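STRUCTURE:
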């Protein structure tokens, strides 16, 4: 079985700023390097000022990573949404996929938008659905060259 963990958090920087996009690039570079070695996969959604991340892998690897992520100063209010056991990975092709544009600009259902702004209250299934849609969108974009 594969463990899948979803959490949300608030960025301690503005992801849309120039410095913010450097932070994101660094996070993703570390994530991709480490995750491919550790057999981890997943997807990171970056909103206006928040993150929602899906992590998948062996239970010990997922827990170990989440413990490190918890203490990362680039975000705060880390909130574990759910951990569950799954048979197959949903993001097996992604050492860490990500969409880094503010989600407010994406065609999301109103349920995905924090309400009131800044309140992180996204149900697990909504986050998974949104990450899957983004992963699909990115695969299609890269297939088109
Ligand atoms: C929102 C967010 C998501 C992250 N996702 C990952 C990840 O998927 N994999 C990873 O190795 N590090 C990730 N990191 C970085 C870790 O918190 C940590 O800095 C990194 O794993 C290096 O840890 P180390 O210095 O203890 O080796 C993330 C950080 C943030 C803020």
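SEQUENCE:
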């Amino acid at each position: 079985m594969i463990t899948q963990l979803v959490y949300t958090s608030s960025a301690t920087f503005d992801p849309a700023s120039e410095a913010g996009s450097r932070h994101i690039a660094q996070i993703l570079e570390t994530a991709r390097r480490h995750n491919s070695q550790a057999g981890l996969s997943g997807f990171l959604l970056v909103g206006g000022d928040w993150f929602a991340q899906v992590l998948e892998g062996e239970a010990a690897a997922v827990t170990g990573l989440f413990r490190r992520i918890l203490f990362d100063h680039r975000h705060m209010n880390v909130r574990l949404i759910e951990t569950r056991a799954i048979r197959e990975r949903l993001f097996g092709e992604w050492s860490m996929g990500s969409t880094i544009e503010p989600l407010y600009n994406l065609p999301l259902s109103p349920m995905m938008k924090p309400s009131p702004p800044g309140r992180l209250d996204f149900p697990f299934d909504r986050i998974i659905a949104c990450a899957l849609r983004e992963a699909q969108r990115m695969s299609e974009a890269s297939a088109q060259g």
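REMARK: The radius of gyration is 14 Å.
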